[in-house]
Amino acid sequence: AAGVIQSPRHLIKEKRETATLKCYPIPRHDTVYWYQQGPGQDPQFLISFYEKMQSDKGSIPDRFSAQQFSDYHSELNMSSLELGDSALYFCASSFKDRLNTEAFFGQGTRLTVV
Amino acid sequence: AQSVAQPEDQVKVAEGNPLTVKCTYSVSGNPYLFWYVQYPNRGLQFLLKYITGDNLVKGSYGFEAEFNKSQTSFHLKKPSALVSDSALYFCAVRASGGYQKVTFGTGTKLQVIP
To answer: How many CB pairs under 8 A join A and B?
Structure first.
């Protein structure tokens, strides 16, 4: 079965550079969530989109922005990268308000800022 | 605001013994509850969920969890632990309703000793 696809799987950037992470949800899923998991930490919610509109916002820095496109894929843009941005970034997708829905997670993008 | 508490950072159990990983939650309205497992350098894998119905839910790899509304708990259990069950386990909650974000607990590291 198709799963959530994230690219790239690994990314190394220098401080002050920019990075773009991509997420392709499961087909027919209309909701995308982004999470950041620092080393030894639990996943922290960043932002979510439903039907291409931002639906909720968590602890996302102002240096980060995200959007969901017409094909429902999403991109997380990160600028002025800092060492503390090094983390595993997860994308998850779900179908809005279906009774048995849960968020399906991608494998994550491991971002290392040096 | 919704939250999840996993009171134990680490649980150690001998192979073949029953295991329990504890989780309590707080959410407005009816909860959707989930357990995810994370192996080193891997994404979050869905184990099981409670949406409605029978309080005892069965999931992947022989795991089960019991929803207790009065105690707001959703403990993960397995009758006989395997060494391969050693991983990081996250309990998660979301409120019922459309495009609600999932909130994770801090995770419990399960170590099954041969």
So the answer is: 59
The Cα of B101 is separated from the nearest Cα of chain A by a number of Å equal to 7
Single-letter amino acid, residue A56: D
> Are the C-beta atoms of residues B61 and B55 closer than 8 Å to each other?
no
**Rg of chain B, C-alpha, whole Å:** 13
Cis peptide before A8 (omega within 30 of 0): yes
Chain B residue with minimal CA distance to A46?
A: B101
List pLDDT tens digits, range A36-65.
988 878 888 899 898 899 888 888 999 999
Nearest CA among B49, B45, B42 for reference residue B23: B49
- Lookup: tokens for B42: 């891997």
Q: Which two tokens stand for residue A53?
A: 């509109």
Q: How many CB atoms lie within 10 A of CB B99?
A: 21
**Chain B residues inside the 8 Å CB shell of A105:** 36, 43-46
For residue B61, which phi and psi values (nearest 5 degrees)?
60, 25
- DSSP letter at A59? S
Interface test with B, best of A21, A102, A105, A111 (most B CBs within 10 A): A102
Find, among B65, B23, B88, the residue nearest to A43 by Cα. B88
pLDDT score of B79: 96
